[in-house]
Design a protein that fits this description.
single chain, alpha+beta, Aminopeptidase, eight-stranded mixed β-sheet, 8 strands
């Protein structure tokens, strides 16, 4: 998967006048043709968008399916979303609102700086380069599909930042960054809440993009989203890797 790309296809344009059986038959044919055109690499990995379930033809072509999970919030109304958030998280957001201001920014370098601090605190390396995200940002920002939010105090100290991608239906949480000196001031919950409020009436869904790290999963879950599965498809032409993947699948 390309860096900072949560999902890939397949994406279908549905014709409401076509019978279900006709649509499924057509999709299976297209998936078989698509699989035949995929490059023969040692390892192929595709994260499908949520709600895509017609993947059997890709299994026939040697792909293994693994389930992953994200949390989705339906952007119905501010009050409804607020009431679904965990009470402790609501208190953190309310307290942060008293001390911090949320601003929209175009400073991708500032986000990268805070994002790196978050990875450094966990003794992890950032899985993409600054150049990659800056190039990506220049494209999607020019098309009006990204938003960077920052939270700062009265002294001008920036506590945290989040990076968001938007399309006509969904707002995606792409990245988070915070200053460890202000880690417990509630900047990230406040920023996520502000992004949700700003998206109501514009997008229909807020997607956290999930995480397999328990502490991050519990943080995302506290916002009251719906646990939603999506498929990760893997195919390998390397026998040792294939055996390892089958063993991993067996003991999942």
């Amino acid at each position: 998967m390309p860096p900072l790309t949560p999902y890939m296809g397949p994406l279908w344009i549905h014709d409401s006048e076509v019978k279900h059986v006709t649509r499924i038959t057509r999709q299976k044919r297209i998936l078989l043709e698509l699989a035949d055109q995929m490059p023969q690499t040692i390892l192929s990995c595709i994260h499908c968008v949520p709600f895509i379930s017609e993947l059997l033809p890709l299994k026939w072509k040697g792909y293994q399916e693994h389930k992953r999970y994200t949390y989705l919030i339906k952007l119905t109304s501010k009050n409804e979303v607020w009431e679904s958030i965990d009470a402790k998280q609501r208190n953190i957001i309310s307290n942060a609102q008293k001390a911090l201001s949320v601003l929209e920014s175009d400073d991708i370098k500032l986000f990268n700086h805070l994002n790196k601090k978050t990875y450094d605190r966990q003794d992890m390396s950032v899985p993409y380069s600054n150049r990659h995200i800056e190039n990506l940002d220049s494209i999607i920002s020019s098309r009006g599909h990204r938003k960077i939010l920052i939270a700062q105090d009265e002294q001008g100290n920036v506590h945290g930042s989040i990076y968001l991608f938007l399309d006509h239906n969904t707002i995606y949480l792409i990245g988070i960054g915070s200053d460890p000196n202000f880690r417990n001031q509630g900047s990230i919950p406040l920023l996520i809440w502000s992004a949700i409020v700003g998206a109501i009436g514009r997008q229909k869904v807020f997607d956290f993009e999930g995480s397999s790290i328990p502490s991050i999963e519990s943080f995302f879950r506290s916002f009251g989203g719906e646990l939603t599965s999506y498929s990760r498809l893997i195919r390998t032409a390397n026998t040792p890797i294939s055996i390892l993947l089958k063993l991993m699948r067996k003991y999942e």
